Amino acid sequence: MRKLLSHLTTLTFLGAVSLGLAQEKTVLTVASWSGNDALIESVLPGFLEMHPDVEVQVVGGLGYGDYHPALNNRLNSGTAEDVISLGNDVIVEYALGDFFENLATAPYNMDPSIYTQSQVANATGPDGRIIAVPNDAGPTIMYYRTDLFEAAGLDINEVTSSWENYIAAGEILKEQGVYLSSGPGEVAGTVWSTNLPDGEGVYFDAEGNVLVGNERFMRGFTLGKQIRDAGIDVQSEIPGWTPEWFEAFGDSKIASIITGSWFETTLKTQADPEGSGRWGVAIPPENSTYINGGAYYGINAASPNKELAWELILYLTEREAQIAIFKQSGNFPANLTVLDDPAFSEPQEYFGGQAIYEVYREAASGQKPVPSNQNFALAQSIVGASFDTVINEGADIEAAIAEAKSLIERRSSR
User: Fold this and answer.
1) Which residues pair with 57 in a beta bridge?
2) Residue 414's pLDDT band (boundaries 50, 70, 90)?
3) 198: alpha, beta or left, given left = phi > 0 and alpha = psi -120 to 50?
4) Phi, psi for 345 (deg, rounded to 5)
5) If DSSP states are collapsed to H, E and C, what string results for 32-50?
6) Whole-angstrom Cα distance, residue 103 to residue 303?
7) Is the Cβ–Cβ distance between 284 and 362 less than 8 Å?
8) Region of residue 260 (phi > 0: left; psi between -120 and 50: alpha; otherwise: beta)
9) Torsions phi, psi of 128, nearest 5?
10) CA–CA separation, 72 vs 95, rounded Å?
11) Which residues have a Cβ under 8 Å from the Cβ of 35 and sit 6 or more positions away?
12) In the structure, how many helices (H) and strands (E) does the chain have?
């Protein structure tokens, strides 16, 4: 009897151990910034249903501006997460390093052709390594007040046929007590960032030569200054992105804004929550659109869970999760194969029944790959500051651009 009890006790112990082992889960960690972290968490149930033996921990909470510096500290100390979110404005810098897996090779074999091409180019290093999968794109869109344009007798197709026509529309709107633009920088930046010749990036060519000073920049600075001199941008009176600036949208003082498609949610919830039915969207003048924002997902090269990390990235960037996140946030998918979904052809009540996502799709699908450069963010900052001196301090355009070019050349060669 004692032997039987001893045998039963042993079986019970082994059973408990087996049960404990069965209940252990692989922990997969994901890093992202505030806002995007919640979107990831919202679609995880589908992934966890397919992987009941996995626990996903999303490490978030930091605002976008603080996220990447904190991530760099963790990457350098070897404590970064398995799956890592990266922003469109910094992805080029990471593509030059070795913190991330190369997704272009086995076992990942990413198909780059199905994503927004300019974003793939940004995530590709000089050696051809692709370090991250584009998740969402922020194609540049013109949001405009259909009622204000109609009251001023303006036709959107004519207004967007050229930048000169766009500015001329501002003069007409001014007579109605309305500002055409939410700020001159959005026009200037769009002009110098779009319609790039083959072999050119925004600030550098494929060989790393600085392009600041060419016709794109001269025209962008000139058009921006014309807008300010004409008094047709609201920032001549109200600083941008302040509470008063947001109030100006709801107060019918601003007729248009040219920005990334991510602004849709901001427009509907913060800038003009009562504006349903009076806004429309269009591609900016002269078909000038580029990717203005967006996120990527990469695999930490030091991760012990690379295979599982890849499965999660595929899940997040394929149809089901992409559509679910799009419907929540308006984040426009970078996966072009998703864009045939009926959700992207549905009329939108806030925009007067316009099928606005067809415009987004046209803008995103037309993006071509351009040369990337590790000093993109540096050049962007220098050119932006130079433009501010022209707009706010009356600096000479040619002199300001020449100084910006010289500063970029000096600082990028260090």
Assistant:
1) 29
2) low
3) beta
4) -120, 5
5) CCCCHHHHHHHHHHHHHHH
6) 14
7) no
8) beta
9) 90, 0
10) 13
11) 64
12) 17, 9
Cβ atoms of 264 and 138 within 8 Å: the answer is no
φ and ψ of 403, to 5 deg: -65, -40
Task: Single out the residue of 288, 261, 258 nearest to residue 344, CA to CA.
Answer: 261
* Neighbouring-strand partners of residue 279: 145
What gap in Å lies between CA 204 and CA 206, rounded to an integer? 7
Q: Is the dihedral of CA 353, 329, 306, 84 positive or negative?
A: positive
pLDDT beyond 90 at 89: no
Instruction: Give the span between the Cα atoms of 317 and 294, in whole angstroms.
Output: 13
Assess contact for 266 and 182: CB atoms under 8 A: no
Does 141 have pLDDT greater than 80?
Answer: yes
Q: Specify whether the CB–CB gap between 221 and 390 falls below 8 A.
A: yes
Distance CA 295, CA 86 (A): 6
CA distances from 210 to 122, 346, 408 (A): 17, 43, 7
Q: Which of 234, 232, 255, 246 is nearest to 148 (CA)?
A: 255
Q: Would you say residue 382 has pLDDT above 70?
A: yes
What tokens appear for 62 in the block?
A: 């930091």
Mean pLDDT for all residues in the chain: 92
pLDDT of residue 14: 43
- 2: tokens are 């004692």
Q: What is the arithmetic mean of pLDDT over 133-159?
A: 96
Cis peptide before 69 (omega within 30 of 0): no
Q: Which two tokens stand for residue 281?
A: 């969207």
The residue type at 211? L
Distance between CA atoms of 393 and 286, rounded to whole angstroms? 29
Buried/exposed code over 347-386 (b: 16+ C-beta within 10 A; e: otherwise): ebebbeebebbebbbebbeebebbbbbbbbebbbebbeeb
Strands (DSSP E) found in 69-224: 83-87, 133-145, 179-181
Closest CA to 263 of 89, 138, 408: 138
Find where tokens 């996966």 sit.
335
Report whether 202 contacts 370 (CB < 8 A): yes
